[in-house]
Amino acid sequence: MNKTDATILKIGGSVITDKNGELTAQTQVIDRLANEVEKADTRNLIIVHGGGSFGHPAAQRNAIKEGLRDPKQLVGFAETHHFMTVLNGLMMDSLIMHNVPAVSVTPSSCITTENGRIKSFEDTPLKMLLETGFLPVLYGDAVIDTKLGFTILSGDQLVSTLATKFNADRIIIGVDVDGLYDADPKAEKTAKLFTHLTIDELKKLKSKLGKPTVCDVTGGMFGKIEELLPALERGITATIVNATKPNHIYRALKRDSIEGTTIEKR
Ligand code: ATP
Ligand code: IP8
Q1: Is residue 157 within 6 Å of ligand 1 at its C-beta?
Q2: Fewer CB within 10 Å, N- or C-terminus of the chain?
Q3: Domain with 233 in it
């Protein structure tokens, strides 16, 4: 199938929340990003945002990723999902205030997983929203799992699945560092930024990616790269940029040159 001009933009929880705290939204950053999305006016855009300090602490506290083992976890699942809707609400408020026709699509209402991998996806409303000219917004969520009872679906798995489903030509990933380094730049001051990587180079590097130092049930940068691989194998380009820096998401959406890491099949 030929590629479309669809763009999947992931806005990381490390950007829109403070992952050192709990339920700490970066509302000014959210507003700036909404303004950048408005200015860029990109057609066929889907946004996915991460959980940051809204999703991960509740998911960890209640062991939601590991599945249903104790009825007490049910409230924990509800809490995790609810906190994600609160963060999503902040994103939606800002996007709509900036005249972006953004519509929230709740993953737990249209997706189930099997052992953590997306198994069913009722995507007709999402496809029709996009075709009608809306900007669908999804997020990492607590979802029903056919084997585990429930689990956590990362925004990164969603990004890769959506990019494949919509035959997107590119994925933009906004995080709180300048791209992908040869080590966690927050832990190693001498870490070197990669500007361009092929899949083969990326696979060799995977073992060096830092495990999360903050609360993150979906594997941090390692988990992100692991999830991106299927989309990259299909020839979809991924660019990792620093979304905490003003206009980096805007410039990436406009296809302007930008500091960051571009990953391509070869
Ligand atoms: P969320 O899952 O909440 O959406 P996110 O997608 O914004 O979060 P993380 O999963 O926290 O982002 O990954 C970004 C973090 O990964 C950075 O803050 C950085 O410290 C860390 N990191 C670890 N190893 C590396 C690496 N090799 N290169 C770049 N960043 C790395
Ligand atoms: O932040 C996980 O999504 P991610 C969301 O994209 C939850 O990994 C609920 C923890």
Answers
A1: no
A2: N
A3: 7-264
